Amino acid sequence: MFKAKIFDISKDLYYIKSNENIYIAKAKGNFRKKNIKPMVGDDVFFEISNDNIAYITEIFQRKNQILRPPVSNIDNAIVVLSLKEPNISYRILDRYIMYYEIMKIPLVICLNKCDLIDENLKENFKNIYTNLGYKVILNDLYIDNTENFKNICKDKISVITGPSGVGKSTILKSLNPLYDIETSSISQKNKRGKNTTRKSTFYEIFENSFIIDTAGFTSLDINMFVEKKEDIRDAFKEFSFTDRCKFSNCMHVNEPNCFIKKEIENKKITQSRYESYLFYLDEYLKNRRY
């Protein structure tokens, strides 16, 4: 048996890389019986049969996985968005952040198309999220962030994700021009991007450094990744002082003597973030499955 990593999937065929060799493999039937489906990012064992066909025989234990699209063993996520063309709200970004916090995957935020917004908006955005401990990259046509991205991705498997049309594929092409990835245009009628990323695919942008370009999501069912309401609360870093509230299980909504609500009143916690929290908490409570 040989060790390999799945870097692409097409229907029931798995493209795997073992050392410098590429194989097109099939999965053994026992995976189907166990209701296990190999994912991009999986480390696997495979064997080559007498008829010269490669078969995946074993999937190593995954350190993590994301749901949409299904990808495993991620080291970090790069969340890309723009505040113009298309206009993306902070609430959408906060959904991405919440998702990756719950999945326990470190993330970097890239604000793209900064040449289209004014300095005050740019700095306000950066301050909100750097104050929470996130690395924020400000990117535009006139800034070369190649080395910045290389340092983030070096010797790692990264996901690059975000709403359609914000420039994910353009960033990926700038890191390695050999990859001819279709980029999306912006519909002038509604200023939204056309989704050109249909699946998850590994790109080795430079030696031993991989990026997976994933389709953006803004409407993923919150119940698919939230098990309990506390998961949402704990995904907001600024709520880490819950132990200072009167009640140890405080949800920071209507409880008396809530330290977090006082911090909001004193403008030490950003109002837009708190509104995102209330929005997603309400969404979960309305749609949760008992």
Structural class designation: alpha/beta
Percentage of residues assigned to helices: 25-40%
The CATH homology group name of the largest domain: P-loop containing nucleotide triphosphate hydrolases
N-to-C SSE series? Answer: EEEHEEEEEHEHEHEHEEHHH
Largest sheet: 6 strands, mixed
- Based on the structure given, which CATH architecture of the largest domain is correct? 3-Layer(aba) Sandwich
Number of helices: 8
Text of the CATH class of the largest domain: Alpha Beta
Strand content: 15-25%
Number of domains: 3
First-last Cα distance: 44 Å
Q: Determine Rg (CA atoms, Å).
A: 21 Å
Mean pLDDT: 85
What is the strand tally? 13
Strand order of the largest sheet: 10-9-8-11-13-12
Instruction: List low-confidence stretches.
Output: 182-198
CATH topology of the largest domain: Rossmann fold
Description of the molecule:
It is a single chain. By secondary structure, this protein is of the alpha/beta class. It folds into 3 domains: 2-59, Beta Barrel (OB fold (Dihydrolipoamide Acetyltransferase, E2P)), CATH 2.40.50; 65-184 and 196-219, P-loop containing nucleotide triphosphate hydrolases (Rossmann fold, 3-Layer(aba) Sandwich), CATH 3.40.50; 228-288, Ribonucleotide Reductase Protein R1, domain 1 (Orthogonal Bundle). It contains 8 helices and 13 strands. The protein has helices spanning 29-33, 90-102, 119-130, 146-153, 168-175, 229-234, 259-265, 271-287; strands at residues 2-10, 13-18, 21-27, 43-48, 54-59, 65-66, 71-72, 76-82, 107-112, 135-138, 157-161, 201-206, 209-213. Helix 2 (90-102) crosses helix 8 (271-287).
